[in-house]
Design goal:
The protein is α/β, with parallel strands linked by helices and 214 residues long. It is 36% helix and 29% strand.
Length: 214
């Protein structure tokens, strides 16, 4: 009997694209594609279990070993800072983590005692400005981050930029690029050893799939 393999997937677009890759490996994703209110979904024939969770919770489930694999954005991994094996760039869900604000923002900096950064990535922001030797105040938000500079809550934001249309619609622009991001396959450190053959087989299968995408 093959060991149960559990996937923690970030709900939404990333999960949808992950299902397509997994289906190409012969994994049945009918249940997780149509979860209703059910939280644990199965492909019983292949002994594969899925949990669909908030993106920021994916690294937590994998780090604690209740999920063997996770599919989540690099932005979320950077913020979580957990000791997971990041084994594959799945190449979809591409975006950039950027500092953004008004184009003439440099001229506005002098108006405030502390430089304020609104973000849902406080750890990334702290590390980025520490490395630059710049003192900042972080204002943590959980959505609509672009409002920060627009409404005068912050000088800049640190957020993901995909198409750039949200920035543009609000008169903001990219000032600095912090990191290139995309969906990543992560593995629990213990599963990598205790379920080695099965884990390897899935990683190799997905790696071959990704080759066809690029
Ligand atoms: C994300 C992000 C930006 C936007 C970027 O927000 O926080 O606001 O997408 O995408 P774009 O460059 O294609 O416009 P999301 O839509 O996830 O909603 P949120 O503001 O509630 O976090």
């Amino acid at each position: 009997m093959q060991p149960v393999i559990t996937f923690a997937l970030a709900k939404g677009r990333l999960a949808e694209q992950a299902f397509t890759l997994l289906e190409n490996l012969g994994i049945d994703c009918t249940e997780p594609r149509n979860p209703g209110r059910q939280l644990v979904l199965w492909d019983r024939a292949n002994n594969i279990r899925f949990i669909l969770v908030k993106p920021s919770d994916v690294p937590t489930y994998v780090d604690h070993g209740v999920a063997d694999f996770g599919v989540v954005g690099k932005d979320t991994l950077l913020e979580a800072g957990r000791p997971l094996y990041e084994v594959l760039d799945l190449t979809f869900g591409r975006c950039r983590l950027c500092i953004a604000g008004y184009a003439d923002q440099k001229n506005q900096q002098a108006t405030r005692a502390t430089f304020r950064v609104a973000t849902k990535y406080p750890s990334v922001a702290r590390a980025y400005y520490d490395q630059k030797g710049q003192t900042i105040e972080i204002i943590e938000l959980h959505g609509s981050i672009e409002l920060g500079p627009v409404i005068g809550l912050s000088d800049v934001i640190l957020d993901i930029v995909e198409s750039g249309s949200t920035l543009k619609a609000n008169g903001l622009t990219v000032l600095e690029e912090v990191a290139e991001c995309s969906a990543r396959l992560v593995v629990n450190r213990v599963s990598m050893k205790t379920k080695r053959d099965r884990v390897r087989e899935i990683i190799d299968g997905l790696a071959a799939q990704v080759q066809t995408l690029t």
